[in-house]
Specification:
Layout (H helix, E strand, L loop, with lengths): L2 E4 L6 H11 L3 E4 H10 L3 H11 L6 H12 L8 E4 L5 H13 L6 E6 L2 H10 E4 L5 E3 L17 E2 L6 H15 L3 H6 L3 E5 L4 H12 L5
Helix pairs in contact: 1-9, 2-3, 4-5, 6-7
Bound molecules: BIS(adenosine)-5'-pentaphosphate and magnesium ion.
Length: 216
């Protein structure tokens, strides 16, 4: 099965994707992570991406669609992808449809994590990520310690776009450009609304229960 985890910045898309890959044989495709890897190449494209992300703007559809195409076209990933943070525009929705059709696949379900704006802001401000194991932590809700994180502390970082000012812009970008595409998946009967304000374990219990009953 292929699925989409949808929601505003800080909704818990990455956290739930990590939960899912721990119990299902699926692969996470976070376009945010792919773009951050691109920045590390220090190419002209990488620098352009960096400046867009730093300002909470979307990267162009062409760039993002090309990254996703590489992954969908790889036979190792056939029918086992979790799209996290993609698609984010209606043009990306149509490209994803086209790509999945070309490679004989489809989306089985779209989870929409609904989270209030003030919750998002606190989550993003408290986030720490591990650059080594890609673990996602939070100084308020899930602090890294010797039980949940095995890497050295030096690998823990704040994301450069995780501050109070940029989060407002990221949230606004989400409302204007990304949220409208929910109705596309709703009309297709693929949308499942989840209350993302709940605790991580409660959200995951719901997602897991649903995925266990999908047979494709
Ligand atoms: P991206 O990296 O995708 O960022 P985002 O969409 O803003 O989402 P986040 O990663 O911030 O949040 P998340 O929902 O994954 O939450 P997480 O699980 O980490 O994109 C970054 C940028 O790249 C974009 O702004 C754009 O510029 C560009 N980009 C990416 N994709 C693009 C695309 N398709 N097209 C164009 N541009 C694109 O959780 C957040 C925090 O909350 C963590 O600390 C976590 O521990 C905590 N937490 C999670 N769940 C809970 C819970 N239930 N209770 C308490 N705390 C929780
Ligand atoms: Mg994320």
């Amino acid at each position: 099965m292929n699925l989409i985890i949808f929601g505003p910045p800080g909704a818990g898309k990455g956290t739930q994707s990590n939960n899912i890959i721990n119990s299902f044989d699926l692969k996470q495709v976070s376009t945010g992570d792919l773009l951050r890897s691109e920045i590390k190449t220090r190419t002209d494209l990488g620098k352009k991406i960096e400046s867009l992300i730093k300002n909470g703007e979307l990267v162009s559809d062409n760039v993002v669609n090309a990254l996703v195409r590489k992954i969908i076209s790889d036979s190792k990933n056939f029918n086992r992808l979790i799209f996290d943070g993609y698609p984010r525009t209606i043009s990306q929705v149509y490209t994803l449809e086209k790509l999945l059709k070309e490679f004989n696949q489809k989306i089985s379900i779209v989870f929409n994590l609904n989270v209030d704006k003030d919750v998002v802001s606190k989550r993003v401000n408290g986030r720490l990520i591990c650059t080594r194991c890609f673990g996602i932590f939070n100084v308020y809700f899930n602090p890294p310690d010797s039980k949940n994180h095995k890497c050295e502390k030096k690998y823990l970082e704040k994301r450069s776009d995780d501050n109070s000012k940029i989060i407002l812009n990221r949230y606004e970008t989400y409302i204007v450009k990304t949220k409208p595409i929910i109705s596309y998946y709703n009309k297709k009967g693929l949308l499942l609304e989840i209350d993302g304000n709940q605790k991580n374990v409660e959200i995951y219990a719901k997602i897991k229960g649903i995925l266990e009953n999908i047979r494709d």
